[in-house]
């Protein structure tokens, strides 16, 4: 990871390293991920309150935005010295945006190293200099293993587990995927966090940069907790957090900037037994999303297995969405998808439909996809029922984005010519660019579905936790 050349960050008299990270501003998918460019990322741990100073090699003037907007971070610009000053009092993730550059700032809570953990100290760790990483660039976890990445640790490796219980990866260090190859034609990818058939998994505080494919693969696993994990992806199929055929998964206080779906839930076949997947009790909360490509909060398209239920997205802020729907359920297989909740969500910018995308905000669909439905197993179609969209506030974006609620009639000859419907969709207190959503919305498409119900009221969107800093005599900052 190389230093970012035009930004320097200081806090409490210490300089915080600012690194270069790849992002992708192209809004059209390509296998070679055209449109990649360099932005900035920094990370430190904080207990209390700190005023930070961002020294720029350009005059930022007053063209500064600090997100999420709802945190109301106070800031000022010294135009004579080209310095942005701002005050942080709560751990979390922040964007400091200027006209041409963005700093992704990850502020971590202070924590102790877990007892018995394998510790990766500050500095670069790869198979060339660390024997704990095998010749395949992997760290393989067994039952009870714990990994801790200290502040300033940079790990160039894949962490995987198969059939492991009671394992964890923690700490505010970095997983750096930039050195690994992504070749779509040859099927070459490197998923940095790959947990299959695992139980009781804890993943906390680390940042995962430039993965060569998906960032997280959580597959056929149970009782998983992800908290304060961060993802920035920019290469093809750069999905953020992918949860597949899992049960009891909680993802909270995390950040995903992705060049494909940001948060995604799927059902796949269990490759060990051949049984169709089951998904239940998947909960995302208190997360920040920045979706450069594809969908922000997606269920589908691969939905193989009848049970997909109790899936929620709550207290989420979508900082930017440029391409495809923010809220989407694409049932391309035989799942009966039910009891889905989108609640307390703010979309700061919904500039949808760029590139090869479409200006659709909500897309709940049951239909066969010739691309995705048959890729893993050919199945009949299922249904969608019981979807609640509550207290959602879109601050800005294109006028009247489409809302699509559509089932379909099965037309493939091997299956009965039956209707597969979407039922029980409810919109409560939804506001789009200042307008309350109602049945008279001008760009709503409904087919093979029950008409949604509406409750018109005030939308407030997401809320943000704050820290009580009154007990701290002075600020505490940890940087390495």
Provide an overview of this structure.
Mean pLDDT is 95; it is low at 470-475. The two termini are 14 Å apart. The chain has a 20-stranded mixed beta sheet that branches. Strands 13-16-19-22-25-28-31-33-35-37-42 form an eleven-stranded parallel beta sheet, with no helix packed on it. The chain is mostly beta strands and 480 residues long. It folds into two domains: 7-109, Dextranase, N-terminal (Dex49a from penicillium minioluteum complex, domain 1); 118-455, 3 Solenoid (Pectate Lyase C-like).
Q: Could you provide a short overview of the structure?
A:
This protein has about 475 residues and is an all-beta fold. The protein is built from no helices and 44 strands. It folds into two domains: about 5-110, Sandwich (Dex49a from penicillium minioluteum complex, domain 1), CATH 2.60.350; about 120-455, 3 Solenoid (Pectate Lyase C-like).
Query: How many structural domains does the protein architecture include?
Result: 2
The end-to-end span amounts to 14 Å
**What is the number of beta strands?**
44
Mean pLDDT across the residues is 95
Q: What would you give as the CATH superfamily of the largest domain?
A: Single-stranded right-handed beta-helix, Pectin lyase-like
Helix count, DSSP H or I runs of 4 or more residues: 0
Helix content: under 10%
Major beta sheet summary? 20 strands, mixed
Shape: globular
Structural class: mainly beta
Our Rg estimate from Cα atoms comes to 22 Å
Instruction: Estimate the strand proportion.
Output: over 45%
Unreliable runs: 470-475
CATH C-level name of the largest domain: Mainly Beta
CATH topology of the largest domain: Pectate Lyase C-like
Give the oligomer, counting copies of the same chain as homo and different chains as hetero: single chain
* CATH architecture name of the largest domain: 3 Solenoid
């Amino acid at each position: 990871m190389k230093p970012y050349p035009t930004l320097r960050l200081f806090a409490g008299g210490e300089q915080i390293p600012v690194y270069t990270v790849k992002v992708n501003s192209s809004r059209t998918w390509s296998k070679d991920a055209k449109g990649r460019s360099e932005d900035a990322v920094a990370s430190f741990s904080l207990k209390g309150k700190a005023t930070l100073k961002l020294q720029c090699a350009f005059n930022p003037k007053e063209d500064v935005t600090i997100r999420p907007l709802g945190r109301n971070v106070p800031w000022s610009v010294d135009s004579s010295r080209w310095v942005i000053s701002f005050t942080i009092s709560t751990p979390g993730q922040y964007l400091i945006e200027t006209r041409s550059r963005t700093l992704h700032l990850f502020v971590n809570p202070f924590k102790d190293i877990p007892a018995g953990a394998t510790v990766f100290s500050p500095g670069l760790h790869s198979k060339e200099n660390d024997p704990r990483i095998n010749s395949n660039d992997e760290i393989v976890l067994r039952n009870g293993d714990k990994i801790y990445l200290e502040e300033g640790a940079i790990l160039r490796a894949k962490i995987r587990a198969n059939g492991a219980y009671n394992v964890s990866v923690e700490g505010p260090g970095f997983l750096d995927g930039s050195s690994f190859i992504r070749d779509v034609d040859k099927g070459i990818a490197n998923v940095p966090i790959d947990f299959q058939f695992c139980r009781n998994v804890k993943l906390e505080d680390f940042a995962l940069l430039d993965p060569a494919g998906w960032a997280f693969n959580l597959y056929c696993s149970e009782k998983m907790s992800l908290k304060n994990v961060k993802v920035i992806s920019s290469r093809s199929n750069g999905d953020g957090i992918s949860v597949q055929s899992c049960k009891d998964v909680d993802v909270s206080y995390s950040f995903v900037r992705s060049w494909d779906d940001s948060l995604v839930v799927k059902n796949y076949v269990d490759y060990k037994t051949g049984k169709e997947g089951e998904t239940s009790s998947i909960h995302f909360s208190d997360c920040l999303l920045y979706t450069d490509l594809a969908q922000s909060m997606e269920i589908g398209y691969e939905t193989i297995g009848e049970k997909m239920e109790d899936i929620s997205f709550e207290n989420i802020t979508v900082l930017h969405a440029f391409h495809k729907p923010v809220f989407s359920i694409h049932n391309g297989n035989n799942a009966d998808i039910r009891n889905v909740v989108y609640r307390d969500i703010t979309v700061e910018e919904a500039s949808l439909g760029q590139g090869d995308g479409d200006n659709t905000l909500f897309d709940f669909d049951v239909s066969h996809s010739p691309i995705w439905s048959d890729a893993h197993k050919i199945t009949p179609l299922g249904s969608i029922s019981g979807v609640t969209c509550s207290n959602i506030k879109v601050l800005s974006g294109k006028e009247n984005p489409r809302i699509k609620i559509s089932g379909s009639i099965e037309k493939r000859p091997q299956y009965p010519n039956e209707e597969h419907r979407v039922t029980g969709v409810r919109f409560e207190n939804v506001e789009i660019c200042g307008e309350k959503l109602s049945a008279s919305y001008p760009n709503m498409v409904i087919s093979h579905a029950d008409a949604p119900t509406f409750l018109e009221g005030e939308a407030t969107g997401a809320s943000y936790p704050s820290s009580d800093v009154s007990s701290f005599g002075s600020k505490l900052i940890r940087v390495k």
